[in-house]
Specification:
201 residues, 8 helices, 11% strand, two-stranded parallel ribbon
């Protein structure tokens, strides 16, 4: 998706070594907490007097930090401190994340704004009934279904979604469609469904 977005007419790309803050009106960072290997802290590298960032949540702080290697823990906490010390405006994707961020960091209320996620319409036509039917056939969807779009990380509590689906399915014929790439979470969920002899997921 990103390479395709970068080809749009209104997008210009530059090497990070050519970054000059004075040539930029506003700096936006989509995910300052991205800890992917080789991805340096953007609030350290891309300093700017007018900066916004999309801040997703404090899940690692609440759920996983104690399980991470020391180096990863320190890097995560360092990024949080950088955000606290910066003038960056945080755009959270929920009111809960906004409140949680203010409760567990020193970032003041005036620097945190909830902006809820919405749909992106690129001007294309909605899929035709034939296209929808083809996707249903491809995925084995043969009737009413419930769509689970959350990741299958432990804190997403997929088991509760599965149990709710099973209770509902006892009264109404349904399928549960789980979105996502095949990763350890999906593999474990598939194994659980197989073990419990649940064919409709």
């Amino acid at each position: 998706e990103l390479p395709r977005c970068l080809q749009r007419a209104q997008i210009t790309t530059k090497c990070i070594d050519d970054y000059v803050p004075e040539q930029v009106d506003l700096m936006h960072i989509p995910d300052p907490m991205n800890m992917s290997f080789g991805f340096d802290s953007p609030t350290r590298v891309l300093r700017h007097p007018r900066m916004t960032t999309t801040f997703h949540d404090l899940t690692p702080l609440h759920q996983y930090l104690d399980q991470w290697p020391r180096r990863n823990r320190e890097a995560y906490l360092d990024r949080l401190h950088q955000l606290e010390r910066s003038n960056c405006q945080l755009l959270t994707n929920s009111v809960f994340t906004a409140e949680d961020t203010m409760a567990h960091t020193s970032i003041p209320r005036e620097r945190v704004t909830p902006i809820l996620a919405g749909l992106h319409h690129d001007g294309g036509q909605p899929p035709s009934p034939d296209q929808i039917a083809a996707v249903h056939r491809q995925l084995g969807i043969n009737g009413p279904f419930v769509l689970h779009v959350g990741a299958l990380d432990p804190h997403k509590n997929f088991h509760s979604s599965l149990n709710a689906f099973l209770m509902t399915r006892s009264a109404h014929p349904l399928q549960l469609v789980v979105v996502g790439a095949v990763d350890p979470g999906v593999t474990q969920a598939a194994a659980l469904c197989s073990k419990r002899n649940i064919p409709d997921v």
